[in-house]
Amino acid sequence: MTHLEGLQHFRRARASGALHQGVWHHPDGGGCLLAVLSPMASHSGEVPATLMPDWLAQIIPPLFDGLPAATCLDWGEALITALSAFEGRTIPRRILHHWMLHGLLPVLKLSCELRHGYPEQVQRLMDLHRDALAARHHDHETWLFGLEGALQAAFTYGYDYASAYQQSYLRCLQYAQAQQFPDAEPMSREYGEENALANRKAFVQANAKVHAAMDAEWLAQGDPGQPSPGTLYGQLQAVTQGYLLTVGHTAEAQGMLYQRLADALLMSVQEAGRDYA
Known about the structure:
Layout: H1 3-16, H2 33-37, H3 54-66, H4 72-83, H5 94-114, H6 119-133, H7 140-157, H8 161-178, H9 184-221, H10 232-247, H11 251-276
């Protein structure tokens, strides 16, 4: 399916009410944006490379699902229209660099600032993406250093410490009370804190190191046709959850966040399309 054919397919699905958020294939037919464009695919990894690169296919579904219902269809149609500018050509990776610089990483930096964290680590990675947009290339080690610092912040804030603490605390309290241990309450608080801290440390270290190692070589090579390591979905989820845990996870905050990220992606595609034209 070409992008122009996909646009026609999208418009027919939209008119018939066959586009749905929160599912890939809907039981009654239709489904999410990518399911409509690529009906044979059951997840982003099965979307044909001729339609879009895998890194783009990873981030479209969560953005489409997170948008307010009132705007998701207009955004989807505008995105497919913008992608049609690349018909028959490789969609450039500069779109990703632009979106990271103007979309995802500013959200992570804001979370750092609100939590009095380390925004300079995020700024370092933003500068690398800015250099990539200007065709200034960096080697694997430079990307690795920039990624590790920013991803430490992303996965730290994306870990729901409060829920992890509460679950550990309650499990310990139930056991301690059943065994009639003295000081069950303070012991359970201490257990909950120690367990949540240890789990967060392991979660952050493992994810930041693995994601950085997988992405660094791919970004250093800069080949737009080279498949991505499949890490962007996890990073997007970590940044968005971290931001919502910071400001308060309300429907209004989520809608505004995903609108910001989705609009930034649309702007990145449109800008790259104008450069091609």
